[in-house]
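Note on ligand handling. Small-molecule inputs were canonicalized before submission; formal charges were left as drawn, and no protonation-state enumeration was performed. Where a ligand contained multiple stereocentres, the stereochemistry in the source SMILES was retained. For magnesium ion, this procedure yielded the string shown in the input block below.
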Amino acid sequence: MRPLIATLATWQRVLAETLAQAEAASRASGHLANPFRSAGNPLDPRTSDDTALFKGRASLFRQLEGILSDAGRRPPPLLVGGRRNGKTSILRFLPTRLSSRIAPAFVSLQKPADGLIGLLGRLADAITAELQRTPGLGVPPLLDRKQLQQDAFAAFGVWMDALERWLDQRVLLLAIDEYEALEEGMGRGCYDERILALLRSLIQDRRQIAVLLSGVHELDELAPIWASRLINTVPLRVGFLVEDDARALLREPAPAFPPATLAAVSDTLLARTHCQPYLLQVYAYSLVEHLNETGRRSATEADVAAVEELVLTRATSYFSDQWRTESGGPLGEQLLAALAQRGPMDAEALRALVSDEANFTRTLKRMTRRTIVIRDATSRRYTISIPLLATYIRRESAL
Ligand SMILES: Nc1ncnc2c1ncn2[C@@H]1O[C@H](COP(=O)(O)OP(=O)(O)OP(=O)(O)O)[C@@H](O)[C@H]1O
Ligand SMILES: [Mg+2]
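Structure output:
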């Protein structure tokens, strides 16, 4: 074992030296290391570069801390925000932003669980793995898997009792990402309404356990049973970045990044993306790449125009999802196409385009909630919030 550890340490050193040499060489050659992300995966503090990339959200963490510290009456927070607005990244950063009294356990329901036993097993795995990772906590009690197979809810309840005793003064925060997948699972018959009863009892009856849900949907957009079972949820909105944080992302995405690189174009980037974090990253990534290809160190307005086509291609699935799915379907798609083609319109002008009155109001509300469209308070006219999205829709819907 020892020789192996020694060999590994040597390799680590060699690798670190090689990396440092490569970085120094690329700096000398004028090549910029590209710190931005174009793939749209969640940021994670366990990846060291991501810590510098993750900007803002301070007030949301403060709000969460406030809600969770009220032990007597702890309403469940519901993180709601549009696709790729940064919900999962926020959940990933919880351990670094909340007080050590709170132990967050992250579980994503993006991949469907195999029935109720599979789901409870997955929750247990996520909780146990997180608690075992947290330094100084010791070994948490384990869920009895045999019991789980025989009587899933009873076994989970017994385990929760033991876990609460073990947690003592600490609070376990069960952060469930893509929570609406539970409804889809119920629709497919994978689980039934007892899963909502379980969530409700975790929220109401367990002093040492808190539940946070995160997703794109508000409770009232799901089946009515959700709002009636999960009363008191506190919606916390995950919108686009605020302007200062968006500027900070472009100026200092990594400690060694030269702040002047995107300085001359940051106003344009903020305007074209409306500070949507994923699009800011894709745009900035594409610009740094373009600068490297053309052997320069700072971007101009001409560069912004030159890479826009590439940005539209790279983010196609995001744009198409906003336009066709998040908009609520064909009616939303039609309204967005009209706004993209004709520019800002008031509600009456938009209503005149459609025949389905009841659906019209619901669709416009849905798109406003998701910040796909925004209404100007003075002119009362609606417009597509992200100019890049408007460009995409204009092109796609052109005859
Ligand atoms: N706070 C932030 N600072 C900088 N960039 C961010 C931030 N949050 C998100 N991003 C960027 O947005 C991308 C999407 O983030 P994330 O996956 O967390 O969003 P999401 O809301 O969970 O998306 P989805 O709805 O698709 O699950 C990331 O890859 C990252 O580039
Ligand atoms: Mg996510």
